[in-house]
Design brief:
Aspartate Aminotransferase, domain 2, 2 domains, 14 helices, binds pyridoxal-5'-phosphate
């Protein structure tokens, strides 16, 4: 089938929840993707921060193939070795004590919200606890996750939300403190806001939130679904701040293509939170997902992914900074590690149009919010890929 035929068929049968770009991606290798016509694309999106190891990683593919031939699924009513290996490795790298595997990021958020509410309920028996979330946050599309997502456009058609979630301004400690009361059971936020436009938490804000939570007996839920798993240059972005969450959500790169997420918690939270019968998932953390997470974490170490992110992100930052200086339409640059964004003056240039031109020229990028273009390459990117990206991007900026 030609690309055009596939696209036309897709338009007939898929629900129109995405404005898809008119290409059909067929296969990938390392930093590159190929469409059905064989056209090559340099990938600086990584399936939205998913494919950290790059495409067609042989070690990863072989591990998954072996697991497919052995056992794909059993119920969570039984133990499975790959899943327990994954849990051991994931608790070790996060510093958390216990994990529940989910199939997506949004489900990890649902679990985190339930865990926080149950913890508070166990302590005082009341059923009207509040959670504080942030404006411009993104936590997913299911009703609980959407209720914590500070974006009116995403929420409004689906009202009412789950209730008792209040919104403060990210990086404004006073605005959070103003919402705290005796019913507050948790604060949920991304360590680096992703969809909201690549906003890292200020160190002062992050430490203030941790202190506030400690002082008032509130649980801190950090959503590292996008910024975690090495993307920031540390395994988890909260490590940059010297704080630890009480509940942590991960997904995206934790499976590197196999749909898996997780929420994790400290033993202190686990002791007074979800117990048998409170939560479950048919697929969550099945042997295939367990094998994926376990292998990803091994490969992060073997391939020195963190060192690479630290080195290459410095170079990426410097090259993006050049673009800021060269172009009036680019107002600035922010980010952490290989999660970077360029902020545009939308009067002078359209980020959406630039992303489209880049695609035509063989570079995959994605926007964040209305005025930011995001750079989220696979974490195996080298400085030569940054140079190749900058060259195409520069050409496409000019139109
Ligand atoms: C992508 C994302 C989610 C939702 O994950 P899904 O797997 O799409 O449900 C939640 N939080 C953050 C920060 C994300 O980037």
């Amino acid at each position: 089938m030609s690309m055009q035929q596939v696209i036309e068929e897709g338009e007939q049968v898929l629900l129109h929840t995405y404005n898809r770009y008119p290409i059909v991606l067929d296969h990938g290798d390392g930093m590159y993707l190929y469409d059905l016509d064989g056209k090559k694309y340099l990938d600086f999106c990584a399936g939205i921060a998913v494919f950290a190891l790059g495409y067609n990683n042989k070690h990863y593919n072989d591990a998954l193939k072996a697991q497919v031939d052995k056992l794909l699924h059993t119920s969570n009513y039984y133990y499975s070795e790959p899943t327990i290996q994954a849990a051991k490795k994931l608790t070790a790298v996060t510093g958390m004590d216990r994990v529940f595997f989910t199939n997506s990021g949004a489900e990890a958020i649902e679990g985190a919200i339930k865990a926080a509410r149950k913890f508070a309920y166990t302590h005082d028996g009341s059923t009207d606890h509040e959670i504080i979330a942030m404006h411009h946050s993104f936590h997913g599309r299911t009703m609980g996750a959407l209720s914590a997502t500070g974006n009116e456009k995403y929420q409004k058609p689906f009202m009412p939300m789950i209730g008792n979630i209040r919104f403060a301004d990210f990086n404004d400690l006073k605005s959070v403190k103003a919402l705290v009361n005796d019913k507050t059971c948790a604060i949920i936020m991304e360590t680096v806001q992703g969809e909201g436009g690549i906003h890292p938490a200020d160190p002062y804000f992050m430490r203030g939130i941790r202190q506030l939570c400690d002082d008032r007996g509130i649980l801190l839920i950090l959503d590292e679904i996008q910024c975690g798993m090495g993307r920031s240059g540390k395994m988890f972005a909260f490590e940059h701040y010297g704080v630890k969450p009480d509940i942590l959500t991960v997904a995206k790169a934790v499976g590197c293509g196999v749909p898996v997420g997780a929420f994790l918690m400290t033993e202190r939270v686990a002791k007074s939170s979800l117990v048998a019968g409170d939560h479950g998932s048919t697929y969550g953390g099945n042997p295939l997902a367990g094998c994926a997470v376990s292998t990803v974490l091994d490969l992060f170490e073997e391939n020195h992914i963190l060192e690479n992110v630290v080195n290459v992100s410095k170079y990426l930052s410097a090259r993006l900074e050049e673009l800021v200086l060269e172009n009036d339409c680019i107002l600035g640059h922010r980010g952490l590690g290989l999660m970077q964004g360029l902020v545009f003056d939308t009067e002078l240039a359209s980020p959406g149009e630039i992303v489209k031109r880049c695609l035509d020229n063989g570079l995959i990028l994605i926007t964040a919010g209305a005025d930011v273009i995001r750079f989220l390459p696979p974490l195996i990117a080298g400085t030569e890929h940054v140079d190749e990206m900058i060259e195409i991007f520069r050409k496409c900026l000019k139109g």
